[in-house]
Amino acid sequence: MRSVIALKGFIALQYFDPPNIDKSILRKAGINETVLVPIKPFKGALPQNCLNNVKAYIDSFGGEVQLGWIFSIMGNIALKLTAHAVVKTKEQKFLCVTPNQYRKDKVRFSPDNGVNALIVNNFLPQKLVPLLTNKMLDNYLALEREMNDLRLANSGMVSQKQVLDIQLKAQVLYPSILQLAKENTSQKDYCFCGSNKKRAKCCK
Ligand SMILES: [Zn+2]
To answer: Is residue 156's pLDDT more than 50?
Structure first.
């Protein structure tokens, strides 16, 4: 999912889902187990609408809702956990029925029934985890959380002024955050721009 405070006109720095996320990174977010869940969207399933997709699927084919987390990273400096719903079929197998912008075959998923308690106004929560100790990174992630909280509090309706206020603050921090991402992305790592190419073949 694209960062809500990604800014036009800047070199792109965005959350993306690389082919592999190291276990040590997931452990920093308290995630010890993940499963690769096959993605099979049905006709009419919408992106970023997983809970409704799952409910519609269950109405037709049975099964139950399984909540949990999917993962994306930003420049090897931050991990995002996004709540996600998949189907738990009658055969007790997980099935993702939501179109995925990153991949078509399987999605890395960590089942967590605790997500249910975090759902406000039908909005699925996110968690942002810094992968290194840095004051500016903390401030940057705090702005992202502020944006998420606004969405939650207002059922998705956020005023232009509120968005602009947060974006202006993020803009001040952005060059440092981009620099930090560059410093922490080796030539062999997937590029911080989210192209899913190794950095050696992507951004300088
Ligand atoms: Zn790149």
So the answer is: yes
Cα-to-centroid distance, 197 and ligand 1 (Å): 7
N-to-C CA span, the chain = 23
> Could you list which residues have their CB under 5 Å from ion ligand 1?
191, 193, 195, 202-203
Is residue 182 a part of any domain in this protein? yes
Residue 16 lies in a domain: no
Query: Does a structural domain hold residue 73?
Result: yes
Is the CB of residue 39 less than 8 Å from the CB of residue 94? no
Do the domain assignments include residue 15?
A: no
CA 199 to ligand 1 center in whole angstroms: 6
Name the token pair of 70. Answer: 């999917």
Question: pLDDT-derived band of residue 119, with 50, 70 and 90 as boundaries?
Answer: confident
- 50-88 as b/e: b if 16+ CB within 10 A: bbebbebbbeeeebebbbbbbbbbbbbbbbbbbbbbbbb
- CA-to-CA distance for 63 and 145, rounded, in angstroms? 33
For residue 184, how far is its CA from the centre of ligand 1 (angstroms)?
13
Q: What letter does residue 200 receive in the DSSP assignment?
A: G
The domain containing residue 128 runs over which residues? 23-201
Tally of domains in the chain: 1
Task: Give percent of the chain above pLDDT 90.
Answer: 69
